[in-house]
Amino acid sequence: MLLRGRPRALGAAALLLLLLLLIGFFLFGGDPDCELGSEREARRGEGGGGDPGSVPGSPTPRVPSDGRLRPRGAAAFDGVPPADPGGHNRSDCVPPPPPPPKCELLQVAIVCAGHNSSRDVVTLVKSLLFYRKNPLHLHLVTDAVARNILEMLFHTWMVPAVQISFYNADELKPQVSWIPNRHYSGLYGLMKLVLPTALPPDLARVIVLDTDVTFASDIAELWALFAHFSDKQAIGLVENQSDWYLGNLWRNHRPWPALGRGFNTGVILLRLDRLRQAGWEQMWKLTATRELLTLPATSLADQDIFNAVIKEHPWLVQPLPCIWNVQLSDHTLAERCYSEASDLKVIHWNSPKKLRVKNKHVESFRNLYLTFLEYDGNLLRRELFGCPCPPPPGAEQLQQALAQLEEQDSCFEFRQQQLTVHRVHITFLPHKPPPTQPHDVTLVAQLSMERLQMLEALCRHWPGPMSLALYLTDAEAQQFLRFVETSAVLSARQDVAYHVMYREGSLYPINQLRNVALAQALTPYVFLSDIDFLPAHSLYDYLRASIEQLELGGRRKAALVVPAFETLHYRFRFPSFKAELLTLLDAGSLYTFRHHEWPQGHAPTDYARWREAQAPYRVRWAADYEPYVVVPRDCPRYDPRFVGFGWNKVAHIIELDAQEYELLVLPEAFTIHLPHAPSLDITRFRSNPTYRDCLRALKDEFHQDLSRHYGAAALKYLTALQPPRGPT
Amino acid sequence: MLLRGRPRALGAAALLLLLLLLIGFFLFGGDPDCELGSEREARRGEGGGGDPGSVPGSPTPRVPSDGRLRPRGAAAFDGVPPADPGGHNRSDCVPPPPPPPKCELLQVAIVCAGHNSSRDVVTLVKSLLFYRKNPLHLHLVTDAVARNILEMLFHTWMVPAVQISFYNADELKPQVSWIPNRHYSGLYGLMKLVLPTALPPDLARVIVLDTDVTFASDIAELWALFAHFSDKQAIGLVENQSDWYLGNLWRNHRPWPALGRGFNTGVILLRLDRLRQAGWEQMWKLTATRELLTLPATSLADQDIFNAVIKEHPWLVQPLPCIWNVQLSDHTLAERCYSEASDLKVIHWNSPKKLRVKNKHVESFRNLYLTFLEYDGNLLRRELFGCPCPPPPGAEQLQQALAQLEEQDSCFEFRQQQLTVHRVHITFLPHKPPPTQPHDVTLVAQLSMERLQMLEALCRHWPGPMSLALYLTDAEAQQFLRFVETSAVLSARQDVAYHVMYREGSLYPINQLRNVALAQALTPYVFLSDIDFLPAHSLYDYLRASIEQLELGGRRKAALVVPAFETLHYRFRFPSFKAELLTLLDAGSLYTFRHHEWPQGHAPTDYARWREAQAPYRVRWAADYEPYVVVPRDCPRYDPRFVGFGWNKVAHIIELDAQEYELLVLPEAFTIHLPHAPSLDITRFRSNPTYRDCLRALKDEFHQDLSRHYGAAALKYLTALQPPRGPT
């Protein structure tokens, strides 16, 4: 039967309605898996804001695990397995969140305090840089220790398209120090609460990260989730993957209030602008103050307070997919998250046990973490294609200088090595310098992996402060860390500062290393030693007494010479006193240093006179002299042009002499060289004529520079110049 | 004015039409950038297949550069800049190709021949494994050298969810050897042509990779592009990024025929099933034969023939986005590809210059390559979550054995180290063993980085074959490679085989290393030495003569003892003859080995008798004897339970004695130990009582095993057992 006239119009209207429904279905609900996150969250946000009562009825926010969005009915995390999309290939219809525009600057904030956290930050940042394709601005809230370390590190890292800003955590302390807190992260754990006020007022969005997270994906994908925020939402968080906030872990377990399982604050998307507008500061302080009337302290630091505020104002929060914060404490439900996802985005070692956490897949997570722990950070100095970013400070000059080198120059490799800016991580391990004493001396030396076994003996011989520069790869730095941790002798010492300079290039940058160790010495005097020497047990005390006695602190400009000896035996009885040493010398068990190979290096010390000396005596500089000396910390730096083997100490002693340092030999001081195989650099020096030619050229240039600086006074060094053979 | 009755029905119909249009617009054409790739490609494929003439008119296939699909009008690669989508965010509407199902097995084929390509394959595979989330099946078409290397490598790598199949390239040679070819890859470069017949007949799809590509993304994304193939397309390829096939590079440059710029075959998606059905074998042979009537040879190996076939049958090819094969030759147009893409998927070092190629961004590409070159391959032993895959052979037993270890056991670390399966890359560098001689001897030793400087001297002292095991990280293996390449002495030697065992664990697996070097020796006899010894210059000749003279090849089972001495000086004149050595010994410039520290290690050699000896003499085993010996290659292996320092050689000599090897001291043989600093292991042994306790426990267990094997005959070793001190 056909419809006509009015009925026909009615039919058309019915069809129209059907079509509208169809359109609605196709556009907004066609596939049960397809729903644009931002709209869905907007709707929930609006509803939730006005009616907080509606949320507790559904305590677990529906958090998708795979970064894709699901219908509200499908549970991901409350024990119910996720809805099977029935063979539907979800990726056919659900677009991923739009990535940020190609060169958009992404903002990241991290709170970091102390030596160990500073190392953690580096690993986090490496994982971030490995996957990132956008320029980044890192906002680092640090204590003085971390700032000192990270400032030098990023300055020398020179990663393109990374800006760094520092914020003084100590200035922020008063804002949170009134909160009693039991969490292992201490006061710094609370500092994320004050970011909206601490960060620049024009900063609208920031991703906040704990130092114990590791990225396995591009942070831009996380940044893109800001687009899902409704108009009011200001905090993006991943649900907690433990039962902590359910409050049933043990009898009388009373956690802070939270929505259902609560949220984990290891990874936060913050709309700072909205938080400021919403009066965040008053908001969290009010909530915290109120809860602290009945609760004695926070257990999980900032996280307790974030959760309490969210419980009260659920419209603030945008739940994020769980893969953006896979929490690897013991007994977490993280497996439910990652086992259904094909992909992991961020893992979070949110347990004080860290890599020793119990999880049946921990080996895999550990491997991802170790990947970045041991990753050569130099490789992250890569440009972003097509993003015009200002180069890191100094990078352009460096590029120009490198471009001017000529590959045909026999010294090409040496000059390239000299120009190399090595990443430097000062005080790599915890370090507590002793209180400053007016005559104190720091032993300064440098080493690489193959001399690590010298450290324990050195610690036994030198009870005073040390500043040691280590030339290591990122992976070796971790071996070094384990070496110190498993050594009772080394881990007992807190006055030894270890500075890691990361390896790059084929020649050992010996003088750059010495300069790093020297610059980090904190006492007024330094003993410039080498790692294969063991000083007399009494040397530390004797040097301090001598400095005092000689009144070096005053007008007197002097370098105190510590006579050097050598043994050829692996094991030998180290002499306790000068008399014992002289006996060994006479017996042929000891020699004066390089007696056979390079006597002129130490001849001016005048060992014959030293045998008899009762008081310090002055010696004169002579060609090729390279004694081990004690000097004020502000002494001239080593000349970085000397890399690898040869002339690196000789040039420094010339500088001291040119600057009119008296050379005073100490009658009771001595230090003894232990045997080792020749270094690779000395082997190259011996077998490679280019190496020797180049060293000659570098010496000439050094003398030219010397004449330029010191004028006619430098002439004596040039006339004393002998055909080169080979000091170290 | 309101419409009524019929007009109203008309209005409704008009509205209906409008709505239908709107629906159509939203669903099928809303955004000019939105077109489902598979549909578009299907349409093109169908058209192209029936009408080959339509393709040459548009010589450059439209290849999108960023992995997303564009309207047909937008050019990406023919000089015209890509169409700007007018601020439209493309990702809002264009879905990426559907990823393969979570645990789908992806098939990859690689042709690999020789030592250098085997190293390249490892880097490629590391990059592949780093990003992959699917199980993989690698089909390796190899010559005997590569098979030998890669079989051992993958066997010891034990990566979960990776299957390996080998195919004998030499058997495939006749199918391509008739083609004259000028490309540097040689005959193996042509072998990709025969994959459809060489690979198993039930294998339908495979991704074919050159050894010089590096992945920067998950290969599953590449696999997903199979879904874009039309019904007939069988070969997915990226357009060439050079002008080679345009034929205007120089006067009389006559390349093989190709569609426009042609395609690059460094990365290929092959539908093997369709190729077989289409008669691929006849197809390419016909084309090649015909072209070779006028062209003298292929210039670019398989690529010339692939392109000629495609020119003739353009319906075969599905062009792939350029980011899947960014070609880094000099003068390529690769920059146009990657500079507009935010992302790179695969880079291809398709120039004989490899990493020295000219490209203004080469530093960044190099960093990506170095990332995987130096990446610790052990970290890739990670499971795929939720993909049930059979574990690699031996993995389960290993897991069980490790699970049975007790952490409280003082030997826990030792037993863990013993059980560790180290990745082994045999013949890491090119190696040409000399023709087999009946009395030839290979010097067998092991070392780590800190002994690298010994190699040149060793080569000067030992002109015969050597088999050396090196204990290195992946990064150190590259340093080692550069060290050999820059040494004239080392790079001149082709009879020295270097086997890399990759580092894992904290103790030096000395006996596992020795066993690897021993197993790879190819001569009938081996000289079991240590890296810090230099043999007499005449030793190699003398040993061969002695073996012949003593008729060791026959019934006689003997170990020839090479007496060991030591010097304490860095530099010394190495004695040419026994008489000279005796003079130095008398002068106190040389000592018998470990004369001061551990005389019992070599006392049974009877140095007094050796002074006078004119002929080989037999000595008896005694406790702690650990001489350096020459034995047949099939001698007992070293006991791997001894790791780190202590008893590793002593136990081996006991085994020799238990198996009734005569111990014959050679009167003219000698070897001299050079000084070096104590190893980390010996330092730990000395300072750590647990270390010493454990060594005692391991010795007891060794003796128990000995009694089990040799019964009462082994009793003498137990009764001779002395309280342990410490041999190496």
TrEMBL record, chains A, B:
Entry's localization field: Golgi apparatus membrane
Cofactor: Mn(2+)
InterPro entries: Glyco_trans_8, Nucleotide-diphossugar_trans, Xyl/GlcA_transferase
Pfam families cross-referenced by the UniProt entry: Glyco_transf_49 (PF13896), Glyco_transf_8 (PF01501)
Superkingdom of source: Eukaryota
Topology relative to the membrane: Single-pass type II membrane protein
KW Transmembrane (keyword) present: yes
Keywords: Glycoprotein, Glycosyltransferase, Golgi apparatus, Manganese, Membrane, Metal-binding, Multifunctional enzyme, Signal, Signal-anchor, Transferase, Transmembrane, Transmembrane helix
Gene Ontology terms describing biological process: protein O-linked glycosylation via mannose
Region feature (Disordered): 38-96
Signal peptide interval: 1-32
Catalytic activity reported: 3-O-[beta-D-GlcA-(1->3)-beta-D-Xyl-(1->4)-Rib-ol-P-Rib-ol-P-3-beta-D-GalNAc-(1->3)-beta-D-GlcNAc-(1->4)-(O-6-P-alpha-D-Man)]-Thr-[protein] + UDP-alpha-D-xylose = 3-O-[alpha-D-Xyl-(1->3)-beta-D-GlcA-(1->4)-beta-D-Xyl-(1->4)-Rib-ol-P-Rib-ol-P-3-beta-D-GalNAc-(1->3)-beta-D-GlcNAc-(1->4)-(O-6-P-alpha-D-Man)]-Thr-[protein] + UDP + H(+); 3-O-{beta-D-GlcA-(1->[3)-alpha-D-Xyl-(1->3)-beta-D-GlcA-(1->](n)-4)-beta-D-Xyl-(1->4)-Rib-ol-P-Rib-ol-P-3-beta-D-GalNAc-(1->3)-beta-D-GlcNAc-(1->4)-O-6-P-alpha-D-Man}-L-Thr-[protein] + UDP-alpha-D-xylose = 3-O-{(1->[3)-alpha-D-Xyl-(1->3)-beta-D-GlcA-(1->](n+1)-4)-beta-D-Xyl-(1->4)-Rib-ol-P-Rib-ol-P-3-beta-D-GalNAc-(1->3)-beta-D-GlcNAc-(1->4)-O-6-P-alpha-D-Man}-L-Thr-[protein] + UDP + H(+); 3-O-{(1->[3)-alpha-D-Xyl-(1->3)-beta-D-GlcA-(1->](n)-4)-beta-D-Xyl-(1->4)-Rib-ol-P-Rib-ol-P-3-beta-D-GalNAc-(1->3)-beta-D-GlcNAc-(1->4)-O-6-P-alpha-D-Man}-L-Thr-[protein] + UDP-alpha-D-glucuronate = 3-O-{beta-D-GlcA-(1->[3)-alpha-D-Xyl-(1->3)-beta-D-GlcA-(1->](n)-4)-beta-D-Xyl-(1->4)-Rib-ol-P-Rib-ol-P-3-beta-D-GalNAc-(1->3)-beta-D-GlcNAc-(1->4)-O-6-P-alpha-D-Man}-L-Thr-[protein] + UDP + H(+)
Pathway in which the depicted protein is active: Protein modification; protein glycosylation
GO cellular component, one term: Golgi membrane
Recorded GO MF terms: glucuronosyltransferase activity; metal ion binding; xylosyltransferase activity
Keyword Glycoprotein carried by entry: yes
Family: In the C-terminal section; belongs to the glycosyltransferase 49 family.
Xref: PANTHER family: GLYCOSYLTRANSFERASE-RELATED, XYLOSYL- AND GLUCURONYLTRANSFERASE LARGE2
Cited function: Bifunctional glycosyltransferase with both alpha-1,3-xylosyltransferase and beta-1,3-glucuronyltransferase activities involved in the maturation of alpha-dystroglycan (DAG1) by glycosylation leading to DAG1 binding to laminin G-like domain-containing extracellular proteins with high affinity and in a phosphorylated-O-mannosyl trisaccharide dependent manner. Elongates the glucuronyl-beta-1,4-xylose-beta disaccharide primer structure by adding repeating units [-3-Xylose-alpha-1,3-GlcA-beta-1-] to produce a heteropolysaccharide. Supports the maturation of DAG1 more effectively than LARGE1.
Protein name as annotated: LARGE xylosyl- and glucuronyltransferase 2
Species this protein is from: Muntiacus reevesi
Organism lineage string: Eukaryota, Metazoa, Chordata, Craniata, Vertebrata
